[in-house]
Amino acid sequence: MSDVRIGVYVCHCGKNIGGVINPAKVAEHAGKLPNVVISRDYVYMCSSPGQLLIEEDIKKYNLNRVIVAACSPRMHEPTFQGVLKRAGLNPWLLQMVNVREHDTWVHENVPEKAEEKAKDLVAAAVARAAHLYEINTVRAPVVKSAVVIGGGIAGIRASLDLANAGIKVYLIEKKQSIGGKMAQLDKTFPTLDCSQCILTPLMVDVSRHPNIEIYAYSEVVDVSGSAGDFKVKVRLKPTYVDWSKCTGCGACVEKCPGRAPKEFDEGLGVRKAIYFEFPQAVPRRPVIDTEHCLWFTKGICKVCEKVCPVGAIDYKQVERYVELNVGAIVVAIGYELYDLSKLSEYGYGKFKNVISGLQLERLSSADGPTRGKILRPSDGKEPKTVGIVLCAGSRDENHVKYCCRFGCAAAIKHVYYIKHALPDAKVLVFYTDVRAFGKGYEEFYQKFRSEENVFFIRGRPAEIFEGRDGSLIFDVYDSNTNQLINVRADLVVLEGAVVPPKDWEPLRRILKVSCDPGGFALELHPKLRPFETTSDGIFLAGAIQGPKDIPDTVAHAAAAAASAIGFLAKGYVESVPYLAVVNEDLCSGCSLCVPICPYGAISVSEKEGKRVAKVDVIKCKGCGACAATCPSGAMQQNYFTDKQVLSEVVVLAGGAK
């Protein structure tokens, strides 16, 4: 390999590397290795002078391979690839050696051994560099449109931002109206603004925007294609109302004799069998609930059909499917509340007067089941003593281990609801820790903790029992006062844990998105890229990435939209450089690589009378699963070929020579 001319550059990284080993000695050792033409050390190789040093050496010494021994490739590989580009070299003729994270940071107490390890790592890189070759990527055009899955505040914000940038948006919402959890709230903390007053104008903006098409009462059932050219299959569930004819007058809802529990009121209210989800619903179009409609259950009635002035009722409607061709997908399906009935000690679902925080929101809302009056579900009476239990199911090894992040602020808001509606009521707040982390939250907490007859007790209730009058009796150990308190409350509110929606698991498998230990979507990088996923072209907005309050959700959704806009505005997608390549002479067409590929990038077809594997370069993400599976070695991965990897292994097995 006499044509291989390698330059080695060892960075001090200040004291991160230079404070543990002697980079000059490592560079000196590297200079004696085969094919190394020049070897240097510098205090900050990523600095402008350091980059210029490499660039000038490439030209001066006619280098065709460059090795940089410094920090993580994730941090500065693009930096040094840029240096190679400016010097006229293919960027993939670069080899990074991570002597910071892999060496000096973990061996700072044994500097001599750390220095020997650095020499070994550089020697392995020199051996590997001899087998590097030019890699060129392929570009494909993008479809400048997007699907946003989920019509809560995150989906609404992302849709508007995308649409305002001139991108066609398809907003998919599984319920009959957009709005999400925020639509169920009475007020928002810490400003106590009316939730609907903030949300409804945005919902109307979405419905009227020329670049947004809403698919309500619909769900994504399949996604094919690849980044920049997705095919999204959407199932339109039958509403049994022709929404193209319906004017939303509500005559059918008014006359319907059927009754069912109202989901929007968390089961506390009653709705008709044909119904609007809530008064401000967008789109304002009704849906027939076949489980409670008298026509579907008993073959009688048809009142809605008789009173509809435009003939929009259609009992024969069936589900339909549409396929949307888009370049990007934004996932904004939010969260669900943990099933509080699993907390058997609290009696949720067993005792009527044990309710969730979201149920209290509905009781407090003017359009709720009690028209804004806080009344006991068991008898409709005003409670005189109310207990609020924080961390119901969250921060609990037996249920949900993580914090819901907004439960404390929600509880403080609920103190306001109760004291505003029932000034003489006594409120007991049972907490583990009060986490008032957001802007204005601490002031919000201080304001309401000093209210008359409001007591914050540090402890979790023991088992709750129900008295004959519907009151709730339980003991709480207050760790602040070291006392066991016996409580008799008329109403108990559980601020529940937050979990991913039930339909997230099948959806994430369709999207090929990973999840974290809590089940939420796993971001590409928790700090630098929290709104991107490992699947190119798929972005995360809001609480599906992890529990968030409304301000954080809106900010996260805006960032996701901005990232999607940047992705689409570029006009093309580029294949990953380290994609899989097939040696057709060695390939036997065994097909083992096809099912192992998580991205569906490999197919097997006939070519000149022989079955061979073929890689879709845009779909391939360079995971290497196919190369590891291939029994003949026909499938290799750019930048990680057998020769490249084994050359490093041989050197490391024998040590630096």
Topology summary:
Elements: E1 6-11, H1 15-18, H2 23-30, E2 36-42, H3 48-60, E3 65-70, H4 73-86, E4 94-98, H5 100-104, H6 111-129, E5 139-141, E6 145-149, H7 153-164, E7 168-173, E8 187-188, E9 193-194, H8 195-208, E10 212-216, E11 218-226, E12 229-236, H9 251-255, E13 259-262, E14 269-272, E15 274-275, E16 287-288, H10 294-298, H11 303-307, E17 320-326, E18 328-331, E19 336-337, E20 354-356, H12 357-364, E21 385-392, H13 407-421, E22 426-431, H14 441-449, E23 454-458, E24 465-466, E25 472-478, E26 483-489, E27 491-496, E28 498-499, H15 504-511, E29 538-540, H16 550-569, E30 572-574, E31 580-582, H17 593-596, E32 602-607, E33 610-615, H18 625-629, E34 635-637, H19 642-654
Parallel strand pairs: 1-2, 1-3, 3-4, 6-7, 6-18, 7-10, 18-29, 20-27, 21-22, 21-27, 22-23
Antiparallel strand pairs: 5-30, 8-9, 11-12, 12-17, 13-14, 15-16, 19-28, 24-25, 25-26, 31-34, 32-33
Helix pairs in contact: 2-6, 3-4, 6-19, 7-8, 7-16, 12-13, 13-14
